[in-house]
Design brief:
By secondary structure, this protein is mainly α. The chain is built from twelve helices and two strands.
Length: 342
């Protein structure tokens, strides 16, 4: 099983590429890669639940294209003209707006596909263990809430079956009352039972450590540096370098504050997280893909990622080497095939 940290790194790599790509050719290629990884891990017997990336794209792309066509009236290739008196949607409907909206749907489907795959193949407890020690209480609350979701779904199915045996039928909003009330009571009973079990095991008996003034000052300075650096880097080109430095320093101070605050939280694990050859391969694949998307290499034409269909639609430019580097995101699919043969 691939470590959760490697999966999150892969998903963040897809997110970074999707955020920097406006070329529909590369977005389609990346979506095909994510769909192949999703299909490979589905065949390897991993958990299912959310719709596949292609099913999501089949809905998101047409909706985004229609919305962009009706709202944006830019472009030279006119498809249809609606009366100008119609609010918001009145005016020309252009082919360029269709392509622009479809590209937005592609990017959205790409991001969804990456994180839905991570959600399916990574156990919840592996993700929760990555929460810093300073936020251990929030992690406990989140893990309990996530554990209650499948229990509530099973309780709802049992209650509906029991009510159906008694002849109850759902015809309107009032007919949900005999289902909602037992479901709420069963949820409260589970909550009380869990609270009693946690108290019996001594949860919450250790006094929390007070936050020192130095830790609070470090946290405040980290937040100030992060927000101020991001604002300077985003909105003031003349101070972009100083803003980037402030952003890096602020994020580093926040991480340091979290580590200092988490020293008082002692956690144990049934098994330790392992980082091996599979995780190194995933990391290398992400690095290769981001090398093409972000690195200013002289032999790569990264400007093709910033394609725009306006003012007149043209064929999106393609750099074959950039597409080849993007194939580094296929490493999880190759690992799934290897896992299936073991």
């Amino acid at each position: 099983m691939v470590d959760a940290r490697a999966w999150l790194l892969w998903a963040m790599g897809v997110l970074v590429f999707a955020s920097s790509c406006r070329n529909p050719v590369y977005a389609l290629l990346a979506l095909a890669i994510v769909a192949l990884c999703d299909a490979a891990w589905a065949r390897s017997g991993q958990r299912r639940g959310l719709p596949s990336p292609l099913r999501f794209a089949a809905v998101a792309i047409p909706l985004a294209a229609v919305f962009s066509t009706l709202v944006s009236h830019l472009g030279d290739t006119v498809l249809l003209r609606l009366p100008d008196g119609w609010p918001l949607i009145g005016g020309v409907l252009t082919l360029e707006s269709v392509v622009f909206g479809a590209t937005n749907g592609l990017v959205l489907s790409l991001i969804y596909g990456a994180f839905s795959l991570v959600n399916r193949v990574t156990p919840v407890h592996d993700l929760l263990r990555l929460i810093p020690g300073a936020l251990h209480e929030a992690g406990v609350v989140l893990s309990i809430a996530l554990a209650f979701i499948p229990q509530t779904q099973r309780s709802l199915a049992r209650i509906r079956e029991a009510q159906a045996v008694r002849g109850h039928r759902l015809r309107g909003l009032r007919d949900w009352l005999p289902i909602v009330v037992p479901l709420l009571i069963s949820g409260l009973e589970r909550s009380m039972g869990l609270a009693e079990a946690m108290v019996a095991r001594g949860y919450g008996t250790i006094e929390s450590r007070a936050r020192t003034a130095g830790l609070q000052a470090l946290l405040a300075c980290g937040l100030l540096g992060t927000v101020g650096g991001w604002l300077a880097w985003s909105f003031f080109p003349a101070a972009a370098l100083w803003g980037a430095g402030g952003l890096v320093v602020g994020v580093a101070m926040l991480f340091a504050a979290l580590r200092l605050a988490g020293r008082g939280a002692r956690r144990t694990h049934y098994r330790s997280a392992s980082w091996g050859a599979d995780e190194n391969l995933v990391t290398a694949g992400v690095g290769v893909a981001l090398l093409g998307a972000l690195a200013p290499l002289p032999f790569l034409h990264r400007e093709v990622l910033a394609y725009a269909p306006y003012p007149r639609l043209s064929v999106p430019p393609v750099d074959p080497l950039l597409a080849l580097l993007l194939l580094g995101l296929l490493v999880p699919a190759a690992l799934a095939v290897g896992w299936g043969e073991r």
